[in-house]
Amino acid sequence: MNIGVYPGSFDPITNGHLDIIKRASNTFDEVIVGVLVNPDKKGLFEIDERVELIKRATKDIPNVKVESFSGLLVNFMKERNIKVIIKGLRAVSDFEYEFKMALMNKRLNPDMETIFMMTAAEYSFLSSSSVKQVAMFGGCIEGLVPDEIIQDVIERIDKKRGI
């Protein structure tokens, strides 16, 4: 079975992430969205909440699974016998960072490959950070995140702002 893992923090998942997931699901038999637990970062959503938000956003894509992990991505992949990392690229600046990560992952496990997918042009400006900033200042996030999670993002931002 041809399995790929799409890793990230997804705090929150954006339509750019969802675009990569959908396109990867047409390329791989199975796509595992690997939600990274980063103990050094305090996210907008807890890890289990992010997993649930992604599951809701991908519920209509049968060959997508969502799992959280901590530690090295290569260890997560080795435990599941996954050989391919899927990474989305928005700009040259993403490539530079992701290229270094791909080389490090290859160094840690020479059997693994990284596949880069270019984001759709309409999402090239989009990031989880920008979604949070727009929401924080009361801007409209429709079209930026999956419709299924818009209310969750707004409610969490409002709670954070004390509203």
Strand order of the largest sheet: 3-2-1-4-5
Q: How would you describe the shape? A: globular
SS class = alpha/beta
Order of helices and strands: EHEHEHEHEHH
- The span between the termini is 48 Å
DSSP summary: helix tally: 6
Share of residues in strands: 15-25%
Whole-angstrom Rg: 16 Å
Number of strands: 5
Determine the mean pLDDT.
Answer: 94
Biggest sheet character: 5 strands, parallel
Low-confidence stretches: none
Q: Roughly what percent helix?
A: 40-55%
What does this 3D model show about the protein?
By secondary structure, the chain is α/β, with parallel strands linked by helices. Helices cover 42% and strands 19% of the residues. It contains 6 helices and 5 strands. The protein has helices spanning 15-25, 47-57, 73-80, 92-108, 128-136, 150-161, and strands at residues 3-8, 30-36, 64-69, 84-89, 113-118. The chain has a 5-stranded parallel sheet with strand order 3-2-1-4-5, sandwiched between helices. The longest helix has 17 residues, at 92-108. It is globular.
